[in-house]
Write a structure and sequence with these properties.
Elements (H helix, E strand, L loop, with lengths): L2 E4 L5 H10 L3 E6 L9 H8 L7 E6 L4 H10 L4 E4 L5 H11 L3 E7 L2 H5 L10 E6 L31 E3 L8 H8 L3 E4 L4 E3 L2 E2 L1 H12 L2
Parallel strand pairs: 1-2, 1-8, 2-3, 3-4, 4-5, 5-6, 6-7
Antiparallel strand pairs: 9-10
Helix pairs in contact: 1-7, 2-3
Length: 214
């Protein structure tokens, strides 16, 4: 059994599907350039659909304090996910400011990128390893670009905090990604969409079924 996070949920049908199908984490995006981004009021409505025991994660990209405060004043979140270029000191400061656990996304294309996670130990509660977009990818977002990386780069590593695998996962490749990386928790966004920012309930169910039968 592998736990899963369905990220970038932006409508009630997708949220209800993720909850009913067994997601352990649900992600709400607060990054306006993303097609999955939500305003705080809409996010609050979706968060209200999530029962106890499922972790509500807010995804931010290099947020300032005012923005974080405005979102948290409206939305009941359980974890902050930082998906920009936040240094360890900023992660630690936001953890102290919000009182919430912080997960830092590490963008990966080589083993050196994974080694960069060491600098965050002690400043974050979770790590996420996501695919790094190539410099020449037009319109690249900080995440959700449907790109993968070499999962075997993680296969012989351990970390003192829990971590998630992300980047181009979908119902067809998630089993392989877990076998090759050793991940216990996986994250998906674009891989369960019918179009950018439009979650497909059937693909959500298929992804969660795949994680449950590994």
């Amino acid at each position: 059994m592998v736990d899963a996070k369905i990220c970038g949920i932006n409508d009630a049908t997708a949220m209800r599907t993720a909850v009913a199908a067994g997601a352990r984490f649900v992600g709400l995006v607060f990054y306006p350039p993303s097609p999955r981004s939500l305003d705080p009021a809409a996010a609050a409505d979706l968060a209200a659909l999530v029962p106890d025991g499922i972790t509500k994660v807010g995804l931010f990209v290099d947020p300032d304090d005012d923005f974080i405060d405005a979102v948290l004043d409206a939305v009941s979140l359980d974890m902050i996910q930082l998906h920009g270029s936040e240094p360890p000191e900023r992660c630690q400061a936001l953890r102290a400011r919000t009182g919430l656990p912080v997960m830092k996304a590490i963008k990966v294309s080589t083993r050196d990128d994974i080694d960069a996670a060491d600098a965050y130990i002690g400043s974050v509660d979770w790590l996420m390893f996501d695919a790094k977009a190539p410099a020449d990818l037009a319109g690249a977002l900080p995440g959700g670009n449907a790109l993968t990386f070499d999962w075997t780069l993680l296969s012989d590593l351990t970390f003192p905090v829990p971590w998630m695998l992300a980047g181009g996962l979908d119902p067809d490749n998630v089993a392989e990604s877990v076998r090759e990386s050793g991940a216990a928790i996986v994250d998906v966004s674009s891989g369960v969409e019918s179009a950018p920012g439009r979650k497909d309930p059937a693909r959500i169910r298929a992804f969660l079924e795949a994680t449950g039968t590994l």
